[in-house]
Amino acid sequence: MIHKPKYHSILIISLLLLVAYNGYAQSARKLPKVKVSENHHYFVTEDQKPFFWLGDTGWLTFGKLDREGVTKYFQDRKEKGFNVVQVMVLHSLNVTNVYGDKALVNEDVSKPLTTAGNNFNNPQEYDYWDHVDYTLDVAQKNGIYVAMVPVWGTNVSKGNKVSKEQAQQYAQFLADRYKNRTNIIWLNGGDTHGNEFTAIWNTIGSTLKTSNPDQLVTFHPFGRTDSSENYHNEKWLDFNMFQSGHRRYDQDTLAGSFKEDNYKFVQRDYELKPAKPTLDGEPSYEGIPHGLHDTLQPKWTANDVRRYGYWSVFAGAAGYTYGHNAVMQMFRKGDKPAYGNKVLWTNAINAPGAGQMVYLKKLMLDFPYLERVPDQTLIANQGEKYDYLIATRGGKYALIYTYNGREILLNMGKIAGDKVTASWYNPRNGKETKIGSVENKGTKEFQPSGNKVDGNDWVLILKSNK
């Protein structure tokens, strides 16, 4: 009898410790908030660690993946180094998920269809929004931020089915439901022209930002356009996003278009005031036909997604979003294919380009990240189109990218030191091969290995010896 109080006390203490631990564990599971860096060109976590946005395009995740698929997808993207996934909340106003749950009442964005409870085994409780919550939890567990498009642009631009008042109520619903989430980023718009329906997009953006100022907000625009063209000075827009698009040089007849030269978006945005980060949120998808609609055209490959990545990041972008034709539409057996796709998403997640994106992220984070600046004065033989060479540097390092193995002629002396150590970095496998020490003055020529051919891409690395 005299021992029972002792054991009882131990049990109580143990339970209290367990409760405290569980509370800590739940708190610890939250990802650090992402914010704009002090120089306003990049991202950092709330503890000031560099955050390189490496995104994947999983637009239809909420609607087409079941719980098992969600787990498989986010685990795979974690293993491949991705830290952001871009997803549509509402692809259409009648969207229904894989479990038959509709998102809205009568296709009205101001009336989300929610039920009491979230018991997956009880269909009367588990709804569309509970599945979104589950997906966000899985993403968080895998260290991934979810960049969510509230409502895809065509639902606003075609048929005018969303009023300003409905947009405000819907955005407030999202803001209230996800106010405690640290792994959410908002992509306002959604493949839409920024100069159309601006009142609705401004309403959604300002409602989300005002309600949750710690969650980043941007605008995902139509192909070959940029959020900066219409919303750069809006207080709700934290960073710019452009869609460099899916057309070849010769397929793009738009006057004034940057065509495939996605680095030009970055160069323009980089000089804007106030300074804001920018990135390519939708370049050509791996495995999609050139120009999208003619399935007899060649398909974009891993070579192309690497080119877009290194071009834009070296120009000063805060990260890069990769995409694959099958994965962006989460193509399953029995689905009606879009853009000529015939590959299941479960296979496409292992496409070559997806596995190579991490080498870009790793390279950038191997050097003092926040001090880096774009610097084309390094290059003495710049070139154009696929011959274009692009450079970025810090105080004691420089990185120069060639897409096709073209020789690199450098103006030396742009970084510290009388001598520098040079090496080649292979974007296809992440391996570095040393060249040796060279004098850091005059003009120097560097020739990559292999023939001059598209896709024989290399990064020349220079490091100060002092």
Task: Provide the descriptors you would attach to this structure in a database record.
Immunoglobulin-like; 22 strands; TIM Barrel; globular; alpha/beta; disordered N terminus; six-stranded antiparallel β-sheet; 13 helices; six-stranded parallel β-sheet; 466 residues; 2 domains
Describe the structure.
This protein has helices at residues 4-28, 61-64, 67-79, 128-141, 154-157, 164-177, 198-211, 228-231, 263-270, 302-314, 325-328, 345-348, 352-365, and strands at residues 34-36, 43-45, 50-51, 53-57, 84-88, 104-105, 108-112, 145-149, 184-192, 217-221, 225-226, 240-243, 278-280, 319-322, 373-374, 389-393, 397-402, 408-411, 419-425, 432-439, 443-446, 458-464. The chain is an alpha/beta fold. It has 2 domains: 33-365, Glycosidases (TIM Barrel), CATH 3.20.20.80; 375-464, Sandwich (Immunoglobulin-like), CATH 2.60.40. α9 (263-270) packs parallel to α10 (302-314). The chain is globular and about 70 Å long.
